[in-house]
Every structure is written in C-alpha cells, then in structure tokens.
Amino acid sequence: MPFLTEELVAAVCEGAGEPADLDRGGSVSSISAELEDVQADREIETIQEVVTMARTLRAQSKLDPKQRLEGVLYSRNPSLEIAQRQAEAIQKLANVTLQFKAGEAPQSPAILSTGGFDLVLELPQGQQDAQRKRLEKERDQLVKNIANSTRQLSDEVFLSKAPPQVVVSIQNKLSNYEDQLRRIEGALGGTA
Question: What is the pTM of this model?
C-alpha cells in the first residue's frame, strides 16, 4: 500500500502542478487546498451515512445481509438531493431498493434516524417481533438518558460549576433524546 499511495499522491500533485512531498512515514506533508473538493466530500459522507444506517438497521433486526430489502429514505434537509444522485451506489452497497422522500418518516417498526435522515425498511413478517423488542429496549435506554440529562440540568450546583459548553451539550443531547423517543414511541404504536 505505501507504494500505491506514493504513486497516487505523485499523480495528483503532478496534475495540479505541485511537487509530491512524501515523508518517510508515507504521509502527505502538504497538498494544496485547491485539490480539496468539498462537494465530493459531502457526497461521500452522505453515501457512508445512509449505507451505515441500512447496514445497522439490518444487523439490529438480525436480517440476512444477502437478502435484498425495500425501504424509504426520508430527509428533512438538502442532503436528500445528494442521496438521490448517489442512489445507485447507496442501493448497491446497502443491498436495498429505496424510494426517496422529503419530510419525516411515518410510524414504522423498522426505522433508524440520524440528524438528517430517517430510514424505514420493510421487514419480513417473521422479524417484526424481534424488531419490537429492539425498539422497546432502545426506548428504555432513551428514557434513562432523558432522566439523567433532566436531573443534571435541574441540579443548581452542577449548573453553577459546569462550563457553558457542557450545559449546551447536555441540552442538545436531551433534545435529541426526546426526538428519538417520540419516533420510537410512534414506531411502537405502529407495531402494536
């Protein structure tokens, strides 16, 4: 791999008119900021995020990785356009067939959410009980996290000693936990 890396860096730097300067350890010591492609980075991050969500949801549901699943990817931000452009790569890497929709996902027994996306997969009939147990376990953990965050934020001694960024971080986590809990409660309501 070091030889391949050295050749790739040399080719990229030569194409940009810069000297290829590699340390003995094989790391690039300097590459022009002009070579950085922010849009390409965002596209790769979106692909990774959605594929990871699909694989995680598949693993949590204990589904065969070779079984092709169908699902819907919901998004509340502009990243949906990126996901749609990269649909072929996402579907191939995650072994899913996806539809893409804007907005929040409806109640579902097989849902996984991140800050930008909600992924809903259709589960085979036999997996729905296992999924319900997973959601109940996740709900119980979120209830504990919410109680802990609420306790910290109501403790005047803690608030007087904690740095402001820590307090803001706990408030953000609490908001995120509450949002996740609402989604899980909705999903559990849909599986009853």
Answer: 0.54
pLDDT digits (tens, 9 = 90+) for 85-134: 888 999 999 999 999 998 888 777 677 777 788 888 887 776 777 777 87
Determine how β-strand 96-102 pairs with β-strand 111-113. Answer: unpaired
The separation between the first and the last C-alpha atoms of the chain, rounded to the nearest angstrom, is: 52
**3.40.50.300, 1.10.287.380, 3.40.640.10, 3.10.180.10: CATH of 128-191:** 1.10.287.380
**Angle, to 10 degrees, between the axis of helix 38-60 and the axis of helix 87-94?**
30
Q: What are 12-69's pLDDT values in tens digits?
A: 776 655 555 555 444 555 555 666 778 888 888 888 988 998 898 888 777 788 888 8
Name the token pair of 8. 């790739």
Domain boundaries, the chain: 2-35, 38-123, 128-191
